[in-house]
């Protein structure tokens, strides 16, 4: 049975409490001490104490969500982030929870400062990783933020720490990760009870992610720090690749990409950091949630998949079959397409929310029709969960969410090399993205192929990243760091082609309501009149309550431009 670390969580806003959270675990020795008597003086003594405290930090790891609706490759209902209608709010869950966990991490780091105990140093390193993780969560949407590196009391002047620059914020994140990796074990050295804990590879991979993000953010805005961050991304990703600890999951043959995201892919060597689940202990209901909400791919994503020969579907010589039938656009495409979205007519052998067996879709549709493309990624075939009859039970499914996987590291390496040097060798392509193509039996990406077919290497590397990481929550960050959101997010969200195809004869798309929602070429428009203001929308507004708190005390917390 999969092991899940258990802990009790309590965290508050950084300026409202004095005392650190103390976590407890399933250790019979702790029962000898009344929980009411646990204090700083009696707790921080052993490696196990620090481990119990560090367990708290895992609780904030991302559960399954619908992050890509903030971009252009997924849709359920209009999203205020992606359509330009976001308004400043008084509070922010991301802000509050991140600083709460940062405070908990600071406590562990302070209590373990100067220790020579190897066990304690390991959990201090975990705390440094998580401090970096939660500051990364803030950096990606707000830019530079106040950097708090000590446990604060209500009277401390540091409660009103001004915002650091985004470079200073990035540098602190990378420093924490550099220090953490020195005291973290290799993932291959973790014993069974510790599988899922932070490893050296996780610190390196997060370092590569953050460095690529900031390096490209700076590059496409003409800033001076791009090269150093791209070098850091190359070095960190390269260390993971050359370490030999990780490899792509191939345990399900030609369907390995699909099953990586389901039960067979749990604890594979592709996983670097997961949010772990276990049925009836800490489970999840992602398949039900995605069904009910209509979390589905868009035409933008569908059209990104290459044909089987490695050509874009708009290129000369493509074998793309067009849109005339229900299944024609799925034929002879990159296999990841049909492992991400369902081919119409497929018998899914699943029970969706509400508990109703899905037959041959589209003949007997049971799902949300917002784009006409139906999500297949994450759709588990687990017979226990799917046939339980436990309507909407949030603990039924237990496949993990992969938060950092080896495939991302390969993509980071390729992109960072190209953006740093303006070119990438075939050897580096073979070391990185072509491993992903090998898994799905797609032709290699080479410089000769790009030149011979009048393609653009940057476009192809970005395409590879988007289709490999589709519906995993990366796209919103990617188009902002590339500074293409001002183009991509203005475009209508579109779905399947209805006019002139078989879809025009099938319910619900034969309904005049749908037929009136097509563009001049017959493609369903799921959302139009979208906005994006490049002067402000690349960053989100800080919570107004935080800004007002500073102001009320004669201090300044600078709001993001335009907000």
CATH class of the largest domain: Mainly Alpha
Rounded to the nearest angstrom, the distance between the terminal CA atoms is 49 Å
How many domain units?
3
**Main beta sheet: strand number and arrangement?**
2 strands, antiparallel
Radius of gyration from CA coordinates: 24 Å
Helix content: 25-40%
How are strands sequenced across the largest beta sheet? 1-3
Task: Report the uncertain regions.
Answer: 6-37, 351-360
Architecture overview:
By secondary structure, the chain is mainly alpha-helical. It folds into three domains: 1-73 and 90-182, Serine Threonine Protein Phosphatase 5, Tetratricopeptide repeat (Alpha Horseshoe); 185-273 and 404-483, Serine Threonine Protein Phosphatase 5, Tetratricopeptide repeat, CATH 1.25.40.390; 277-399, no CATH class. It is 36% helix and 5% strand. Strands 1-3 form a two-stranded antiparallel sheet. The chain has a two-stranded antiparallel ribbon with strand order 2-6. It has a two-stranded antiparallel ribbon with strand order 4-5. The protein is globular and about 75 Å long.
Write the SSE topology.
Layout lengths: L46 H12 L15 E2 L17 H19 L6 H25 L23 H16 L18 H20 L6 H18 L12 H5 L10 E5 L10 H8 L2 E2 L1 H6 L46 E2 L3 E2 L25 H4 L14 E5 H16 L4 H6 L1 H7 L7 H6 L4 H12 L6 H7 L3 H4 L4 E5 L14 H4 L7 E5 L16 H9 L11
Antiparallel strand pairs: 1-3, 2-6, 4-5, 7-8
Helix pairs in contact: 1-2, 1-3, 2-3, 3-4, 3-5, 4-5, 5-6, 5-11, 5-16, 6-11, 11-15
């Amino acid at each position: 049975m999969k092991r899940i670390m258990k802990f009790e969580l309590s965290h508050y806003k950084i300026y409202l409490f004095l005392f650190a959270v103390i976590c407890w675990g399933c250790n019979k020795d702790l029962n000898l001490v009344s929980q009411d008597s646990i204090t700083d003086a009696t707790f921080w003594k052993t490696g196990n104490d620090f481990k119990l405290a560090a367990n708290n930090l895992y609780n904030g790891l991302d559960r399954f969500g619908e992050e890509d609706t903030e971009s252009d490759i997924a849709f359920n209902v209009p999203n205020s982030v992606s359509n330009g209608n976001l308004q400043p709010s008084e509070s922010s869950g991301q802000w509050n929870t991140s600083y709460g966990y940062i405070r908990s991490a600071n406590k562990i780091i302070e209590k373990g400062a100067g220790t020579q105990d190897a066990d304690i140093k390991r959990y201090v390193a975990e705390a440094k990783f998580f401090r970096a993780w939660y500051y990364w969560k803030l950096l990606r949407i707000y830019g530079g933020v106040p950097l708090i590196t000590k446990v604060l009391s209500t009277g401390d002047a540091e409660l009103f720490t001004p915002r650091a620059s985004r470079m200073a914020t990035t540098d602190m994140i990378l420093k924490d990760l550099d220090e953490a990796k020195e005291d973290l074990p290799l993932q291959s050295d973790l014993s069974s009870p510790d599988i899922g804990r932070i490893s050296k590879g996780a610190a390196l991979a997060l370092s590569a992610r953050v460095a690529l993000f900031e390096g490209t953010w700076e590059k496409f805005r003409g800033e001076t720090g791009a090269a150093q961050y791209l070098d850091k991304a190359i070095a960190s990703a390269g260390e993971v690749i050359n370490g030999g600890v990780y490899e792509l999951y191939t345990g399900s043959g030609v369907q390995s990409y699909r099953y990586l995201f389901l039960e067979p892919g749990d604890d594979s060597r592709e996983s670097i950091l997961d949010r772990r689940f276990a049925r009836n202990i800490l489970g999840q209901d992602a398949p039900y949630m995605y069904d009910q909400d209509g979390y589905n791919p868009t035409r933008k994503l569908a059209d990104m998949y290459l044909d089987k020969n490695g050509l874009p579907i708009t290129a000369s010589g493509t074998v793309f079959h067009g849109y005339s039938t229900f299944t024609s656009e799925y034929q002879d495409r990159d296999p990841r397409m049909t492992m991400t979205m369902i081919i119409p007519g497929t018998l899914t052998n699943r029970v969706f929310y509400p508990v109703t067996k899905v037959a041959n879709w589209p003949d007997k549709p049971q799902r949300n029709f917002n784009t006409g493309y139906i999500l297949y990624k994450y759709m588990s075939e687990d017979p226990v969960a799917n046939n339980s009859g436990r309507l909407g039970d949030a603990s039924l499914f237990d496949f993990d969410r992969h938060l950092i996987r080896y495939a991302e590291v390969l993509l980071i390496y390729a992109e960072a090399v190209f953006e740093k040097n303006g070119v990438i060798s075939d050897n580096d392509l073979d070391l990185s993205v072509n491993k992903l193509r090998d898994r799905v039996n797609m032709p290699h990406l080479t410089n000769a192929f790009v030149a011979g077919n009048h393609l653009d290497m940057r476009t192809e590397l970005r395409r590879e990243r988007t289709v490999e990481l589709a519906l995993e929550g990366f796209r919103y960050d990617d188009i902002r760091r590339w500074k293409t959101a001002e183009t991509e997010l203005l475009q209508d969200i579109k779905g399947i082609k209805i006019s002139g195809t078989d879809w025009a004869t099938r319910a619900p798309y034969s309904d005049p309501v749908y037929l009136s929602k097509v563009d001049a070429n017959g493609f369903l428009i799921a959302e139009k009149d979208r906005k994006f203001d490049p002067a402000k929308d690349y960053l989100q507004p800080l919570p107004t309550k935080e800004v007002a708190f500073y102001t009320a005390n004669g201090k300044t917390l600078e709001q993001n431009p335009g907000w």
